[in-house]
């Protein structure tokens, strides 16, 4: 399963595949309006339908070798803090490899998203998956934009992705 970081680690995090048993945990994320306010990619679904659709998309990505979110486990506590991964996306008619991340309520502002995103960046470049990575971020999502900037990315353009106004952040592999 190309692009997945299953078994990878950072100083504070472990990456593992999403499992069906994670549903109740991720429902807490999907039920939190602040967590999902920039994610109208899935439309106006109620939290349970949103979570179910999220899981279907992740498992479909795993099956079709188009990357997918990994669950992030804090090594010190064993707690699940969020998801992060490499995702094959089509943006403006071009296939791209995205670093996507979402943190569970209560774990934001602690550097976990930046740490996980950097690991994804390094993993993609070290494994020669691509010479360029992007992050697709809602134009009003300042926290995620900060993560992209700390990951060495810069704003490349503003566009519409799945009916959402977004900034495309990008980084190129250094020679």
Q: If you had to describe this structure to a student in words, what would you say it looks like?
A:
With 175 residues, the protein is of the alpha+beta class. It has a single domain, classed as Aminopeptidase. It is 31% helix and 34% strand. It is built from 5 helices and 7 strands; from the N terminus they run βαααβββαβαββ. It has helices spanning 23-30, 33-36, 47-64, 112-126, 142-150, and strands spanning 13-17, 67-74, 80-91, 94-103, 132-138, 154-161, 164-172. It has a 4-stranded antiparallel sheet with strand order 1-2-3-4, sandwiched between helices. Strand 2 (67-74) and strand 3 form a beta hairpin. Helix 1 crosses helix 3 (47-64). The chain is globular. It starts with 12 loop residues before the first strand and ends with a strand. The model has no long low-confidence stretch (mean pLDDT 93).
């Amino acid at each position: 399963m190309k692009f997945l970081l299953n078994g990878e680690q950072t100083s504070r995090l472990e990456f593992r595949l999403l499992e069906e048993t994670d549903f109740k945990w991720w429902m807490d994320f999907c039920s939190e309006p602040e967590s999902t306010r920039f994610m109208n990619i899935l439309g106006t679904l109620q939290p349970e339908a949103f979570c179910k659709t999220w899981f279907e998309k992740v498992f479909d990505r795993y099956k079709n070798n188009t990357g997918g979110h990994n669950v992030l486990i804090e090594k010190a506590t064993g707690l699940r803090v969020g998801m992060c991964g490499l995702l094959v996306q089509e943006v403006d008619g071009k296939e791209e490899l995205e670093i996507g991340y979402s943190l569970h309520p209560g774990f934001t502002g602690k550097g976990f998203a930046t740490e996980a995103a950097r690991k994804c960046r390094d993993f993609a470049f070290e494994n020669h998956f691509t010479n360029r990575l992007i992050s697709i971020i809602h134009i009003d999502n300042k926290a995620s934009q900060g993560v992209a900037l700390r990951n060495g990315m810069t704003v490349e353009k503003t566009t519409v992705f799945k009916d959402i106004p977004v900034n495309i952040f990008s980084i190129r592999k250094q020679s």
